[in-house]
Design a protein that fits this description.
The protein has helices at 9-26, 34-37, 39-48, 52-66, 72-85. With 89 residues, it is an all-alpha fold. It has one domain.
């Protein structure tokens, strides 16, 4: 099987974080936390610097702090990314 159709882990994190952060905004979550308000910029900066583990961990932080319930597809993607990054879940 060819790997040309598989997304990079960087792209997986970027797409998932955009999806999750959009849900948080849509739900009207309010906070003074810069880590959440600027979550997209923070994650994007980590991804730009190829700090994929930090980007993933920041996404986990945002999910935890906002108490967002992920759907099954988002959960599977988080587990997949963690596995690829060698993060035990």
């Amino acid at each position: 099987m060819l790997n040309i159709f598989k997304k990079s882990i960087k792209k997986e994190i970027a797409e998932l974080s955009n999806e999750i952060l959009n849900v948080i905004v849509k739900n009207g979550f309010e906070t003074d936390s810069c880590g959440i308000k600027d979550g997209n910029e923070i994650i994007t900066e980590y991804l730009t610097k190829n700090e994929l583990g930090l980007a993933y961990e920041h996404l986990e932080y945002v999910i935890s702090e906002t108490e967002l319930s992920l759907n099954s597809e988002q959960t599977k993607t988080m587990i997949f990314i963690a596995g690829k990054l060698g993060i035990k879940k």
